[in-house]
Write a structure and sequence with these properties.
The protein is mainly beta. It is built from no helices and 2 strands. Strands 1-2 form a two-stranded antiparallel sheet. β1 and β2 form a beta hairpin. It is elongated, with a radius of gyration of 13 Å. The model has no long low-confidence stretch (mean pLDDT 83). Bound molecules: zinc ion (2 copies). One zinc ion (ZN) binds next to loops.
Length: 59
């Protein structure tokens, strides 16, 4: 289970926002096709630049 980096409260896997402090989690992606990096507040499924599928690139 992921832990909030700000208050160390455990969060549900499908929550984007910490239930304790309300911080919105930031996800980082790097597109393997065009090499662009993105920071997003939600799950990014497709690269906005080249439409590559990013769903299998999460770590
Ligand atoms: Zn928190
Ligand atoms: Zn791309």
């Amino acid at each position: 289970m992921p832990v909030c980096p700000y208050c160390q409260v455990e969060m549900d896997d499908d929550l984007d926002t910490c239930p304790n402090c309300g911080i919105t989690m930031i996800y980082f992606f790097k597109c393997q096709r065009c090499g662009q990096e993105f920071a997003t507040t939600g799950i990014l499924k497709f690269c906005p630049l080249c439409d590559a599928d990013l769903s299998e690139q999460m770590n």
